Amino acid sequence: MENDNSKFKNEKIELGHGGGGYKSWELLKDIRKVLSYKGRWRNCEDDAAILTVRKSDFGEAKSDFKRKLVFTTDAFIVDPIFFPGGDIGKIAMCGTINDLSVMGAKPLGVSLSIVVEEGFPKDDFMKIIASIGEVSEAAGVPVATGDTKVTESGKMDKIEITTAGVGLVKRVIPNNGIRPGDAIIASGDLGEHTVALLSKRFNYKTKIKSDSKPINLEIAKVGKYLNACKDPTRGGLSANLVEMAEKSKVKIVLDEKNLPYKKETIAVTELLGLDVFSLASEGRFVAAVSPENVNKVLSALKKFNREAKIIGVASRGQGVYLKTELGSLRPIEMPRGKLIPRIC
Question: For the domain with range 183-332, which CATH number is right: 1.10.10.10, 3.30.470.20, 3.90.650.10, 3.40.50.1100?
């Protein structure tokens, strides 16, 4: 396959390309143009891809036998490796389980690939493995296969983890299914993963801990009522809602009086000059729910997290806006520029 790469000749990969904002979105568009062949895989621009498995795939006669296989992968480089409420192993496991879950899938297994630098303390290495094991048991999702490599000292920064996961789904929850009139729900307060990492990175005292956890059990309870769903990791609420609204061709208005952030989270972002809407979470999801199902969904979610609530509403139109306490509408855009690096 021939590709004209001359237009990229004077460009460099920047940290912003991995931050989850506008630059990440641009880079992914370039990648997808080259990797355009998808075969029978669908939903390739969602958190996980879907393949309908047929009996004929096994050389047998065609029939109505069908199963939808869900597949996802992610790489993790985190600084610091250990932080309040978790470590790189915990978010690697949670991240992959959650990407399957927001598609409506039941996660069946995860692969674990670790590249570790020579000289890395073995007790720290085993702490990370123990965290992975704890999430695996809590979520009921086994680590089915994996690989470990050790590279020479100085060739990388400590440790990198790549996970992939597979699951099965009956009803796919897309991220482009928001309908006018839908309530936008957050499964809990957001942004606490980023705040926990930054507090450790900059030695800032806070009671906030990472929100990282597997969300498969929560979504198993409410998935049939969700019209759209996404976990707001890199790029935070703004990047993910802007993407969902654009794909769904709707307008989303958030209520400033009901934002899903703790006062301490907002205080830390103001102190560091950050946009609270761009903070990542690793154990939360945002979803669109039809009005008739809102109470059922909130009732179920509050058993997992009492902070679950409605944060906005969808209508005809386009874009994402914040309705301030004064009644004005402020546009919320895809984060641009350099976002916080190495948080997941």
Answer: 3.90.650.10
